[in-house]
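User: Hey, quick favor. My workstation is busy. Could you predict this chain's structure for me?
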Amino acid sequence: MSLDPKHLAALAEILRLGSFEAAADSLGLTQSAVSQRLKALEDSFGSVLVERASPCRGTAAGLRLAAHADAVALMEANLARTLGLDDQATESPRRIRLAVNADSLATWLPAALDSSAQYSFELLVDDESVSADRLRRGEVMAALTTQAKPVRGCDVVALGALRYVATASPGFLRRWLALGPTPEALAQAPMLQFSAHDDLQHNWLAQHVRPGLRPPVHLVPSTTGFLGATVAGLGWSLNPLGLAAPYLAEGKLVALLPNSHYDRPLYWQVSRIVSPALSQITARLRRHAKKALEPLGGQRL
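Assistant: No problem, here it is.
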């Protein structure tokens, strides 16, 4: 199957910007022209690639095809640089789609990303325990994940462990854990959870208190909101130590148990076909992770 690069560009812009109108403005085309290019691509591919909604969303096939287009553009740009054929003054940024976890995005990751403007990052936030699935589906070029085993067709780099601490507000402790964080009390005390995939709190309970506890849960899908809800006393939770430390120092949060931190291992998995083109990004991540994360090896999940 031969895929027209102009048709792929139209698909990628629709999904990146969320509408045909915005894609047309970006490409310097009419909306009709963008629609025609997408229709031609869908006809040749034999599948619907874009869900016509507000914003537009890619189908599984559409997301994979757009990621393929971005990967091809990245590899071509890398080849041109290698051969000295590119013009750095006029070259447009290359889009890089990455699956990352919210806690890394809220702590160490932004400083680790390349700020030279040669890349345009599209960060898809997912729980680190499931972000590798986006790699398997071909939707992203690389992902931060807890999975040490390489996804098929990917290289894996061990980065380190993000350290968490179980905390609650003083008022929450007085109300729910007045006799201490016993298994009986923690089975009743409300707990925060980032998403249905978030297993941090349950893993901490199993490791430090008792396996199998199922306390009532509040779902709070925001890193800052998660921390804020803990400070407000909505529930107890695990937060990255770097974010919780100031609140611990001020007495707005209290650790549930002394010396009960929880280290979450992080690995960088990158599609092998684009790994050379992303070598600079990988190197930056490794350097920053070495300073920001704990060494791996102390805990198995």
